[in-house]
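User: For a benchmark we're assembling, each entry needs the component sequences followed by a predicted structure for the full assembly. Here are entry 17's components. Please fill in the structure.
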Amino acid sequence: MEIFPVTEKKTRVEDESELVFGTLFTDRMFVMDYEAGRGWHSPRIVPYGPFSLDPACSVLHYAQEIFEGLKVFRRPDGSLATFRPRDNFERFNRSAARMCMPELNVDFVLDAFKELVRLEADWVPHSFGTSLYVRPTMIAVDPYLGVRPSNKYLFYIILSPVGPYYKNGFSPVKILISDEYVRSAPGGTGEAKTGGNYAASLKASMEATELGYDQVLWLDAVERKYIEEVGSMNICFLYDGKVVTSPLKGTILDGITRRSILTLVREMGLQVEERALSVDEILEGVASGRLKEAFGTGTAAVVSPVGQFTYRDRTVTIGDGNMGELTGKLYETLTGIQYGKIADPHGWVEMI
Ligand code: COI
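Assistant: Structure for entry 17:
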């Protein structure tokens, strides 16, 4: 792999408490090209910077694009740890298959990712709660206006030092349950991490933000009755003492944080139910006290407590509106494993 020199270094944020999610990028990026008949070629680490794209290229017209999100954590001894990176690249390949894009050699890109992070190690922030967010992306770059899978692709990895995803840190979020818009339908691309799913979510998110909510909770597209997921995270409920979350049926993201949390929940001796949970059950559960906690899970969002849900003209507050006990314990356990404060019995962490 060729490594190109960086001539101009970027300015860093001195005060890590000022890191805003996804706004600052490091000095270098990994890039690789694909052409039908030739396969992936020319892997290289180059200075971070703009690409030159033909205005006709497919991604700009038909959104043939996929991405991933994973993190690198700096531990108190200075070492760098990453969390379940193979799972991210394997999910990337599943997204690629759904979007008719070429798969990657997972071992090769894992090595490339680690090499890039080693070169950019100084960019990994030091404080607990901060990390280096890693964004692998693939775009279709054939300059062709017909609708068909592209013959050429660009794969790249960029790195961004980040603080909490939500502007209020880890304080409980206010969520609007939408029955007007839907995010994905059976047979669609809901399970793939593809830009179009997020573009389609913007109108509902924008309207929710204007009304003072942090995120939108999506219902199933058929009955508009069952909980699916939240804009940037999967969602779990502590209901009747069990952790209930939507099943993976192709319409929601198979979250790696979701998987990890469900494992931790079972190890804490609680039962997990992956089943359709209706809005009515949420409203009834809050009223009767059967629903005690709600939290989102995601790489960017980590474990994020939900304080309030609003559905049509009804707003319900979960518990006393603050982070619940289980949510706090899961947050501490997951981040404890990631930052090396507690043991990693599952082998989820890979040191860089
Ligand atoms: C992540 O959690 O890594 C995501 O990709 C969510 C993102 C849309 C911010």
